[in-house]
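Consider the tokenized backbone below.
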């Protein structure tokens, strides 16, 4: 990818900057600014270079309709405070917008187009819409890795009509993921959780030939317990996936990748219960498995100790209840304390929420704000937004 940092002269150039500013907003206030915080270095870089910045982004899923509650107005105000510059929100229809209308005031440096998903042409990856959008600028920069798995007009098709570059954040994201998938410092371990093992089978299969250890946790592990003949009580389990689990273990054996799963667990009768640690033989019919036990944590720490690279995607238990968050929190703190002894990458909304709750972001080598794009990259898929920049 050509990087924005390699552009020789962008002073007074109109830069269309695609960002992912899809942050949660409640009563007009941003409740989690993590995604905005990540792209501030790119904005500051362009401001310092005296570029004219046209930000393109979205919030939510308006399905090609104007939805007042999904306006980017709160985001424009937040960015203004962050970069200490005037940020104008342009609500005019893009099809009626001319280049000369955007920076009509000589003091304007940053403008934000209204929610790009208000236009049905965006998700349809429409050619005419892409060309019209490109005509507003002279350079296009994608700094929205978390949107780059979308084949949308402002993500991929626009690059047909304008010189295109990767932003600071997107390059950092891709480099971090390459270090754990292509330029690996072994031994390398993956801790992977989630609700459905079937949804992550392709990721696991793609990582097994490259990784030394894969630790399966969360509700995904319930399926392995059942497959192994262990008691799971009333825990969430998928149906008809024995062949998938068998495939994971045989694939691990083929490539000499050890597949781990919890040896003991914590249970509750309800999601709101306090945690009780049990061995599998003591699990009752109305017990739900909601976290890992102390023996499992001891084993996970030993695996982390012997690893040089670590990828973590998915909490170890039902962390929304603090009584079942102990496993996730303890592993987070343990990895954070390893310092430069391990190269650590964390991704996925729930896992990032665990890290954020402990304010440990700066203790990991990279914390990804991407969800779907992060997972599809790990599956080995070609992301349209990245391909368009190559």
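A designed sequence for it:
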């Amino acid at each position: 990818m050509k990087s924005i940092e390699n552009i020789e002269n962008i002073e007074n150039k109109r830069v269309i900057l695609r960002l992912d500013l899809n942050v949660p907003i409640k009563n007009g206030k941003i409740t989690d600014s993590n995604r905005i915080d990540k792209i501030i270095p790119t904005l500051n870089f362009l401001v310092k270079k005296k570029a004219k910045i046209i930000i393109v982004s979205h919030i939510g899923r308006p399905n090609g309709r104007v939805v007042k509650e999904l306006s980017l107005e709160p985001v424009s105000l937040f960015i203004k405070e962050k970069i200490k510059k005037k940020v104008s929100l342009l609500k005019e229809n893009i099809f009626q917008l001319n280049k000369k209308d955007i920076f009509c005031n000589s003091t304007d440096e940053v403008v934000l187009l209204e929610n790009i998903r208000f236009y049905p042409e965006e998700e349809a990856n429409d050619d005419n819409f892409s060309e019209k959008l490109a005509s507003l600028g002279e350079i296009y920069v994608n700094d929205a890795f978390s949107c780059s798995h979308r084949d949308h007009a402002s993500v991929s098709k626009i690059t047909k009509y304008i010189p295109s570059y990767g932003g600071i954040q997107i390059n950092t994201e891709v480099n971090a993921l390459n270090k754990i998938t292509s330029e690996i410092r072994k031994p390398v371990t993956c801790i992977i959780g989630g609700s459905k093992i079937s949804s992550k089978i392709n990721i696991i299969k793609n990582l097994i030939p490259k990784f030394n250890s894969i630790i399966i946790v969360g509700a995904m592990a319930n399926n392995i317990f059942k497959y192994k003949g262990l008691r799971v009580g009333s825990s969430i389990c998928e149906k008809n996936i024995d062949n998938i689990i068998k495939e994971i273990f045989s694939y691990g054996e083929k490539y000499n990748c050890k597949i781990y799963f919890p040896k003991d667990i914590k249970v509750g009768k309800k999601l709101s219960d306090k945690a009780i640690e049990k061995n599998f033989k003591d699990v009752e019919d109305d017990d739900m498995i909601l976290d890992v036990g102390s023996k499992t944590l001891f084993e996970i720490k030993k695996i982390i100790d012997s690893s040089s690279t670590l990828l973590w995607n998915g909490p170890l238990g039902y962390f929304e209840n603090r009584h079942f968050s102990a496993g996730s929190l303890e592993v987070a703190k343990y990895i954070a304390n390893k310092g430069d002894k391990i190269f650590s990458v964390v991704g996925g909304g729930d896992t990032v929420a665990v890290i954020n709750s402990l304010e440990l972001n700066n203790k990991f080598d990279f914390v990804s704000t991407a969800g779907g794009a992060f997972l599809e990259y790990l599956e080995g898929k070609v992301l349209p937004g990245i391909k368009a920049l190559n």
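The mean pLDDT is 93.
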